[in-house]
């Protein structure tokens, strides 16, 4: 099998098939062997693992995943890339290629049909950056039988997912991810790890899904209502953002009293609160 991480091999495929990279589909293909090795090692897959890959492209990462895992199901939206992938990886008999849009496919049916025996699934992907957030939210909040997600994303997004309270990167998405996952950085990939090179630096991050959320709350929807309200106006105090939101039926004085009772200074800003503090507010707000 040809090594698809080789720029010469990719160039010859482009010339032979007349393939043109699509910017709008986020087609930046990996050509960095070191980063590819780190993705496979960092994802923790072995011969018993079921892998779901999103956006296999020509199959650079896919060929390594097939060598390490029990079965790989790869979902690709671009028909021409899927044709090339089928040809490139004809020898991989543990690979199933599915043509379609990962955000539109019925993932429950796909998982039941392809990974039917209830084993946990690991998602591994060099994601198309234009839909990073909706893909991650789908995988994290969808209740699928997934135990980890190892993905290449923009470094700027990775920084937000793993951010600690207090910094500029800490936001509503940080809290959604930290509610359900533990985030671990795996590798940094500079633009020249890809063909064509993207404008930004990328990072591989691993999200291990928790069996129980990281904090216990009475009402999960309320937790995220509070988070959304607190981050709606970043420069305002917590008291002002909560009282400006029409999501709660409490007066400003009642909110202030509640925060004081919980030991949370109402003058703090939303981005300084930990998920545990948000959980306390969520359980006490009306
Ligand atoms: N895995 C390959 C690699 O690392 O070289 C390609 C990664 S490239 C960053 C993203 C891939 O996702 C492209 O092959 C693109 O066609 C595919 N893609 C884009 N949008 C998609 C979608 N909604 N569903 C499935 N695949 C998609």
Report on the architecture of this protein:
There is one protein chain. This protein has a seven-stranded mixed β-sheet with strand order 4-3-2-5-6-9-7, with helices on both faces. The protein has a two-stranded antiparallel ribbon with strand order 1-8. The protein is 40% helix and 18% strand. It is elongated. The relative contact order is 0.11. Strand 5 (121-126), helix 6 and strand 6 (146-154) form a beta-alpha-beta unit. Helix 9 (220-232) crosses helix 12 (275-284). It contains twelve helices and nine strands. The protein has two domains: 7-209, 3-Layer(aba) Sandwich (Rossmann fold); 220-284, rRNA adenine dimethylase, C-terminal domain (Helicase, Ruva Protein, domain 3, Orthogonal Bundle), CATH 1.10.8.100. The chain is an alpha/beta fold and 286 residues long. The chain binds S-adenosylmethionine.
Show the helix and strand layout.
Elements: H1 7-17, E1 29-30, H2 33-43, E2 50-54, H3 60-68, E3 71-76, H4 79-88, E4 95-99, H5 107-114, E5 121-126, H6 132-141, E6 146-154, H7 155-161, H8 172-180, E7 181-189, E8 194-195, E9 202-209, H9 220-232, H10 238-244, H11 252-261, H12 275-284
Helix pairs in contact: 9-10, 9-12, 10-11
The structure holds S-adenosylmethionine.
S-adenosylmethionine is lined by residues 25-30, 54-57, 60-61, 75-78, 81, 101-103, 126, 128, 131.
């Amino acid at each position: 099998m040809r090594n698809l991480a080789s720029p010469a091999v990719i160039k010859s495929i482009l010339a032979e098939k007349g393939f043109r990279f699509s910017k709008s589909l986020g087609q930046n293909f990996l050509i960095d062997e070191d980063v590819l090795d780190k993705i496979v090692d960092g994802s923790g897959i072995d011969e018993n693992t079921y892998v779901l890959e999103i956006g296999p492209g020509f199959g650079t990462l896919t060929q390594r995943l097939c060598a390490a895992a029990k079965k790989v199901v790869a979902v690709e939206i671009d028909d021409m890339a899927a044709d090339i992938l089928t040809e490139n990886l004809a020898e991989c008999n543990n690979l199933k290629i599915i043509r379609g849009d990962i955000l539109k496919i019925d993932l429950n049916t796909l998982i039941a049909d392809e990974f039917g025996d209830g084993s946990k699934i690991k998602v591994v992907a060099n994601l198309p950056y234009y839909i990073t957030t909706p893909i991650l939210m789908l995988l994290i909040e969808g209740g699928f039988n997934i135990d980890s997600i190892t993905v290449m994303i923009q470094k700027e997004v990775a920084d937000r997912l793993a951010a600690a309270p207090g910094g500029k990167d800490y936001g509503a998405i940080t809290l959604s991810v930290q509610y359900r996952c533990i985030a671990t950085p795996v590798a940094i990939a500079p633009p020249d790890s890809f063909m064509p090179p993207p404008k930004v630096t990328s990072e591989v991050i691993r999200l291990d899904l928790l069996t129980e959320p990281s904090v216990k709350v009475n009402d999960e929807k309320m937790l995220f209502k509070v988070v959304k309200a607190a981050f709606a106006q970043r420069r305002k105090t917590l008291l002002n953002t909560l009282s400006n939101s029409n999501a709660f039926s409490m007066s400003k004085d009642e909110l202030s009293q509640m925060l004081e009772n919980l030991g949370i200074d109402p003058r703090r800003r939303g981005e300084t609160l930990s998920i545990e503090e948000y959980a306390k507010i969520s359980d006490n707000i009306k």
